[in-house]
Amino acid sequence: MILPLWEILASVPDGRRIFVEFKCGGGPETLVDALPDVTESPDKVVLISFDLDLMRGVKRLFPRDLAYLVAEQKQATGQWQPGTSQIVDKATRAGLDGVDLANTLAVDREAVKRIHDVGLACCLWTVNLKECADRLIEAGVDSLTMDDPRLLLAEDEGESGM
Question: Which portions of the chain are predicted below pLDDT 50?
């Protein structure tokens, strides 16, 4: 059973956020009818997509909502592409609120600082190793997407690795 978005949003505890990723084509206008529940709860939702034009339009239509650009960096000839500066420039020029980056070694304390220095949030996906999560938390990221967030509790509660 697929729950309606309003029901999912109602289950998000106060002080927590849910990330809603747009994977569809079309312009942001196509989302207007699908998102009335989101606009009612801007403090609980972060809208994300790889599609920069879509996110620019989403931010224009829903200015109170948090909108982040999703990006993946790959190593090519010893350099991470696209570079963090390129991603930051795109998100900033589009008027977005943050970036949601793939979990790679390109994201270190310096990269996070560069992202924060321009006023963007820095989130990472998908983090499934406690050592990676610890490194990223130490670097100052704002949030992590994990398949099993209990992984962060394993060491604290004396559990063996998950």
Answer: 159-162
